[in-house]
Amino acid sequence: MPIALVTGVTGQDGSYLADQLLAEGWEVHGLVRSLIVEGEQEVRSEVTRHVGDLVDEDRLIGLVSDLSPDVVFNLAGISSVAFSWKEPVKTGVISGVAVATLLKACWQLRESRGKEVRMVQASSSEMFGHPTAELQSEMTPLAPVSPYGAAKVFGHQLVAIYRERGLHASSVILFNHESPRRPTTFVTRKITSEVAKISLGLSQSLSLGTLDAARDWGWAPDYVDAMVRVAQAPAAKDYVVATGIAHTVREFVNASFEAVGITDWEHLVSLDPEFARPTEVTVMRGDSSRIRTELGWHPTKSLDEIVALMTAHDLSLLV
């Protein structure tokens, strides 16, 4: 039975990853900040939880040594671009420096016991900043425009350095991906939860920073499946995980209102500069040709399907 250590196991992606790994017969261990989960996904009972912090180097190295996992999936870190502007130092340590610690731990385990241990790093499309190409691939230059993106670049490049050194270390460059498990602090879940309230007369309006920003949105369980495929690939590489189709925030909002039967929604949405990013990336669209061709991955849901599922879930929480 293969063993996986998943950081960020209580997040959207971590919870879906644990589900898939358990279904495929893995022994799953998860790093958690506390045994009491508040505001995050509940950890399945089959997952062995280990309390620890990404800034605790000794704890991380000791945990990897004790568990001797076959794969370390690093999904933890600061997940909000907006938060990274408020706490840039904290973001750099948790989303950047912690990657170095995990890579060091994997390398030391390999060197001391002669066991291959693989690592999959959750990188981000935010590393591209203002893209110079219509489609962003593994070859697109990295030019982050936020502390979040910069921290992700640091971790991403360290993965490449350790891979060159001989470690089976890969990065999945994840474009935006959503699900009902996305926290309401994210604009996508904010949209679907507020639209659900509006449809029931529990809210009067939805405030957003912009309707024009465009993103390549996919289905979170598909992106987790990509991580598992990358972990099991013969060779370690970087892989863009994306649908290749960009949609605006306006289209996302429209799909959510359509899901509750509201077609005339413009008067229900207001724009508030408070919610706008200091530096807004306008268009992001990923070229996932490599992972589709080499590992047989493909997205399974359209944006309308994703938004409908999220909106239905938020309605179910209110009725």
Q: Note the gap between the termini.
A: 42 Å
Strand order of the largest sheet: 3-2-1-4-5-6-11
Task: Kindly report the name of the CATH homologous superfamily of the largest domain.
Answer: NAD(P)-binding Rossmann-like Domain
- Would you state the CATH class of the largest domain? Alpha Beta
**Percent of residues in beta strands:** 15-25%
Structural class: alpha/beta
* Average pLDDT, all residues: 93
Annotated CATH topology of the largest domain: Rossmann fold
* Biggest sheet record: 7 strands, parallel
Number of domains: 2
Portion of residues within helices: 40-55%
Element-level helix/strand string: EHEEHEHHEHEEHEEEHEEHEHH
- What is the number of helices? 10
Which regions are unreliable across 5 or more consecutive residues at pLDDT < 50?
A: none
- What's the architecture of the largest domain, going by CATH? 3-Layer(aba) Sandwich
Query: Compute the gyration radius: what is it?
Result: 19 Å
Task: Please characterize this protein's 3D structure.
By secondary structure, the protein is of the alpha/beta class. The chain folds into 2 domains: 198 residues, NAD(P)-binding Rossmann-like Domain (Rossmann fold), CATH 3.40.50; 93 residues, UDP-galactose 4-epimerase, domain 1 (Alpha-Beta Complex), CATH 3.90.25. It is built from 10 helices and 13 strands. The strands form 4 sheets. A 7-stranded parallel beta sheet has the order 3-2-1-4-5-6-11, sandwiched between helices. It is globular and about 65 Å long. The mean pLDDT is 93.
